[in-house]
Automatic annotation (TrEMBL):
Catalytic reactions of this protein: L-threonyl-[protein] + ATP = O-phospho-L-threonyl-[protein] + ADP + H(+); L-seryl-[protein] + ATP = O-phospho-L-seryl-[protein] + ADP + H(+)
Protein name, as recorded: cyclin-dependent kinase
Family from the record: Belongs to the protein kinase superfamily. CMGC Ser/Thr protein kinase family. CDC2/CDKX subfamily.
Keywords annotated in UniProt: ATP-binding, Kinase, Nucleotide-binding, Serine/threonine-protein kinase, Transferase
Residue runs in coiled coils: none
InterPro entries noted in UniProt: CDK, Kinase-like_dom_sf, Prot_kinase_dom, Ser/Thr_kinase_AS
SUPFAM superfamilies: Protein kinase-like (PK-like) (SSF56112)
Annotated Gene Ontology cellular component terms: nucleus
A GO term for molecular function: cyclin-dependent protein serine/threonine kinase activity
GO biological process, any: positive regulation of embryonic development
The keyword Phosphoprotein appears for this protein: no
Residue span, Protein kinase domain: 37-325
Organism: Spodoptera frugiperda
Gene giving rise to this polypeptide: LOC126911184
A Pfam family it matches: Pkinase
């Protein structure tokens, strides 16, 4: 593994791979308008906004535009949207889809973040591989895992919990560069751990401490998700595909064994730790990963990700130094990853083809230049002022 991600935990590679961020306010100084982008197609829509593929007319570049829902009628929703904006504009790393700048429409509800366009999400990518009856060879798995761990190491070193890691939130470029996306549930954290909402993370990738309603958690919840994703890279099947929270925790206990205060100190003190679960022996999870698909070192790494005790769970930095990544075959170069047309590219018409403008509540074309400039100025000042107020969220 001699590509740029080999030792991404070292200071040297950090300096080469991660450009220092400008002061927080400078991300807003361009004051560009939505009219400078040509709509191509809608990519996805989540709880906190929709994502569109568009062409930056000035740079003649395909980008992703995420519309942030700034509905200030719902205070909790509004604060969550502002948290996402702050994180998107704060983080910068080659394996993270971060915000480049804000662009604004005709009113205060039309706020878009310009981001790199990355065509594939790993959920669709793995579904396509499964239909072709293909599996990732070890070198490809290590390439994906190395990049994913580099992204998580950067997030955690910058005090950010993702809280929703899953294949559909991990993107892959045509050149094999992996990027973590969707920070709608992400939070900044500190020490000592604060209390947070326990019902985070998509069910199949949710750590057992969250399923047992612990409201004090930290980076280990992301590392549990990494373990589930790692197993899915190997088999192309979810490791614990629960149908409900109860079914999910039962599947985990069946695979890993029912925890005790010995295997998980403090287990009985969790909010539902006194509930009696069926007693399952340890070690069945290895039967779910055929030995010919993962080496002993690989199984050891997976086991470290799936430890019950969050304190003992493998960190991203430690995982990057695990023997699994040093054994043969090593990780391939990202540009050697296979690729094919992406669903997110719509009908793949030329980006210069005539298309409607990006969706807005009112057509920007209908506004006079003077009226538009005034509206843009008001919206821009509104967003800047609000974000500065919530800079400590």
């Amino acid at each position: 593994m001699d590509h740029q991600y080999k030792n991404c935990s070292t200071d040297q590679v950090k300096r080469e791979a991660v450009t220092p961020l400008p002061p927080f306010r400078l991300a807003f100084q361009s004051r560009r308008s939505l009219t400078e982008f040509q709509y191509l197609n809608k990519i996805a829509e989540g709880a906190f906004g929709a994502v569109f593929r568009a062409r930056d007319k000035k740079k003649d570049e395909i980008v992703a535009l995420k519309r942030i829902k700034t509905d200030n009628r719902n205070e909790g929703f509004f604060v969550a949207a502002l948290r996402e904006l702050k994180i998107l504009l704060k983080i910068q790393h080659p394996n993270i889809v971060a915000g480049r700048e804000l662009v604004l429409g005709n009113n205060m509800e039309e706020v878009f973040v310009v981001m790199d366009y990355v065509p594939h999400d790993l959920r669709s990518y793995m579904d396509a591989m499964r239909k072709k009856r293909q599996l990732f060879p070890p070198g490809q798995v290590k390439c994906l895992m190395t990049q994913l761990l580099c992204a998580l190491q950067h997030l955690h070193e910058n005090w950010i919990l993702h809280r929703d890691l899953k294949p559909s939130n991990i993107l892959l470029s045509h050149k094999g560069v992996l990027k973590v996306a969707d920070f709608g549930l992400a939070r900044e954290y500190g020490l000592p751990p604060r209390q947070y909402t326990p019902g985070m993370v998509t069910l199949w990738y949710r750590a057992p401490e969250l399923l047992l309603f612990s409201d004090e958690y930290s980076t280990p919840i992301d590392m549990w998700s990494i373990g589930c994703i790692f197993a899915e890279f190997i088999t192309l099947r979810p490791l614990f595909p629960g149908r409900s929270e109860v079914d999910q925790i039962n599947r985990i206990f069946e695979g890993l064994g029912t925890p005790t205060d010995t295997t998980w100190p403090g287990y009985s003190e969790l909010p539902v730790g006194n509930v009696t679960f069926q007693n399952h022996p340890t070690g069945r999870w290895r039967e779910m990963i055929r030995n010919n698909l993962l080496s002993e070192d690989g199984l050891s790494l997976l086991e470290e990700f799936l430890l019950y005790d969050p304190v003992e769970r493998m960190t991203a930095a430690a995982a990057l130094d695990h023997p699994y990544f040093k054994e043969q075959p090593v990780a391939i170069e990202p540009d050697m990853m296979p690729t094919w047309p992406a669903k997110s590219e719509g009908n793949r018409q030329s980006p210069r083809a005539r298309r409607p403008p990006l969706p807005t509540s009112k057509s920007l074309a209908s506004s006079s230049d003077d009226a538009h400039k005034k509206a843009l100025f008001r919206a821009n000042n509104f967003v800047m002022n609000i974000l500065q107020i919530f800079v400590s969220l």
